[in-house]
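Task: fold both queries, return tokens.
Query 1:
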Amino acid sequence: MDSLHIAGIRAYGYIGVLPEEQTLGQWFEVDLTLWLDLSIAGKSDRLEDTHDYQIHVTVVQQLIQTAKFKLIETLAETIAHHLLKSDDITQVRVRVIKLTPPIPHFNGTVAAEITRSRTVKNLPVLG
């Protein structure tokens, strides 16, 4: 299966357990991998035959800016749920990075990464 990778989606949000994170906020970064069929676009070289990933960048930025979650895992799950609403995406990988976690004497980042697939229900049993 083909995939699109979108890296470095940044937005300022209010996700975190500490009261300061909920009121002062902080920067987050999201990387996405979207699994979908890109063969038609690869053959036609036409914009209308490919996937408009700009929509997903906007959705992720809006979710970061408006969500009030305690955990980055919840944000990742919410992003995955929204991405899988697109008919042509069969699987997603979402990596949410907290760029400045409030951990004393720590200058690194913390990330949660999940992979979710579309579930197909109510298909007839063959054979």
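Query 1 returned. Query 2:
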Amino acid sequence: MGKGTGAQAGLRRRNMALVMKALAAGENVTRAAVAAEVGLTRATVSTLVDELLAAGLVEEQGAQRPGTVGRPGTVLALSETGPAGIGAEIGVDHLAACAVDLHGRVRARAQRPAANRSRPAEAVLAELADLTAGVVAEAAAAGLHPVRTTVAVPGLIGQDRGTVLRAPNLGWEDVPLAAAFGEAAAVENEANLGALAELWLGGHDGRLTDFVHVSAEIGIGAALVVEGRLFRGARGFAGELGHVPVRPEGPRCSCGANGCLETYAGEEALLRAAGVRTGRGPALKAAAVAGDPAALRALEEAGAALGIALSGAVNLLDPQAVVVGGPLADLAPWLLPGVRRELAARVTDRQWRAQDVLVSRLGHDGVLRGAAYSSVRTVLDDPATWIRTVTEPSLPPTGSTSCSSR
């Protein structure tokens, strides 16, 4: 391929991605609207849209609705069939999988309880593969075809995005997880995927681009989104908020240090302090709703500890907001007063407001949906390569194992 030909192909690839993202971001969108949005000629946009239509990535939905200026155009939208992203999640006490379409809508989902702590990784992965296969089959019946699978794990992930280096709450070390799901698979830390789900699917319409996302089950995880991109750190381990010391004289943590946030606000610490022995998170919430003094006291102390840890992150990073997600969101009414009080007392920016602590709308599915959508976004980010992969099957699968794209 000549130099000029290669440059032309690269330009076409970038332009097609621009068109695809414009279609993904808008409603009642026409070719003319896309051309105005991305700064390309109508002829160029029309040619690219025709290719996307032929590939099944875009569909026409009829004439533009009345009330628009000028001659109505044909409305375009991302296809509801075709490429799908598969997400799989390994929790300490559950396994889950789902499929999402190009819109990020969940089209198939399955979950089952599983006691995964200290369970052999091979057994966990075999059960997860079985669960995922059922989701893939259900998605296929709806006309969806998996692009890749992303697996969410509560642990440190290697830079190859395929190996779990250490997952203390599972008892795992150096597990080559992606290999169990085939070539087109990636592994990602669950907290990172929760933050990416918030960025992409949290209903902020692109307005929230700098934030700290915090969630918890057995442990506490956080992730940092800076200028619309996931911040990983030099070795990929940024966000270990659970092991920030909040009271150095406090109890010993599983990491070997004393007084870490996890010893006050992790699920096991909360349940122990509240005197809840069965039912875990839902039982703790029920006790709080009922006004149980021990539960309320435990949640108050946990909220204060969380606020102390988050104040350091806010002072260091100056984010737009802190987002509380995952199971922590269920406990927000009792946690957030302590969080907000500590932030108000400790954050140096006096413009910081209580409203800057948000509760995610995604609930418990944030991590799983983030995993699935990160898989299908490889098509949104680079549709030309995906089309080429489909038409030339000998090419490697589209996308990379990084989930840090905007």
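Both queries returned. Flag for query 2: Residues 205-360 form a domain with the Nucleotidyltransferase; domain 5 fold (CATH 3.30.420.40).
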